[in-house]
Amino acid sequence: FLLSKLTHLLEISKIAALILECISSLLFSSIFSYGITSYYLKLSRCEKVEFKEIFSKSNLAFSYIFISIVTGIFVFLWSFLLIIPGVIAIINYSLIHYIKLDNPFLDEFELVKKSKKMMNGHKLDYLKLVFSFLGWFIIGLFTFGILYLWLIPYMNVTMANFYNQIKYEKITI
Question: pTM of the prediction?
Answer without folding.
Answer: 0.78
